[in-house]
Design a protein that fits this description.
single chain, globular, 7 helices, Bromodomain-like
Length: 174
């Protein structure tokens, strides 16, 4: 039986990648529910977070499909870590704009190159509808931005700690 520690620090653990993939699907589902059922349309920062969740889902699926090898697990964990850190930055931007401690203009363009036209290919997920400025409250005075920041910070810390642990193990054996 796996302990929680082995699940968290093992990039070769199928359970770890299943948790990440499930979380991505859940968070994307919540975003789409808020958009299509509750009428909260996404801004560019929200769409960036959706794209990052999609990238993390692809990394997780790849990790589940390839044979478990230490270096592959380390590379995939590095990718997941970078995505979570980028999501942490985007979540901080969303909260900053919402709370007014970051002033900036939100564009109505994702900034993606033409060869990666996610807005055109999947407009039901990645089309930008509104300028930045608020996210809906999920409960009490806790907004979606607060929750995204907490989730991103939590998983960023776990990934960084896992990366350090696995990196030390890998390079001490070499």
């Amino acid at each position: 039986m796996h302990s929680i520690k082995s699940l968290i620090v093992s990039p070769s653990s199928r359970g770890w990648w299943i948790v990440l993939a499930s979380l991505c699907v859940f968070l994307e589902g919540v975003a789409l529910f808020y958009q299509y059922q509750l009428g909260y349309l996404p801004c560019v920062l929200c769409v960036h977070i959706r794209m990052l969740l999609g990238a993390l889902l692809l990394v997780s699926i790849l990790a589940l499909l390839i044979p478990p090898k230490p270096i592959a697990g380390l590379v995939l964990l590095l990718l997941a870590t970078l995505i979570w850190l980028w999501m942490l930055e985007r979540s901080w931007q969303v909260l900053g704009v919402e709370m007014g401690f970051i002033m900036g203009e939100c564009q109505m363009s994702s900034g993606l190159p033409q060869w990666l036209a996610l807005e055109s290919w999947f407009p039901f997920i990645f089309k930008i509808h509104e300028p930045c400025g608020y996210t809906p409250y999920v409960f009490f005075k806790v907004s979606m931005a607060h929750i995204l920041l907490a989730i991103s910070a939590f998983f960023s810390l776990i990934c960084v700690a896992s990366l350090i642990t696995k990196g030390r193990e890998h390079f001490s054996r070499s």
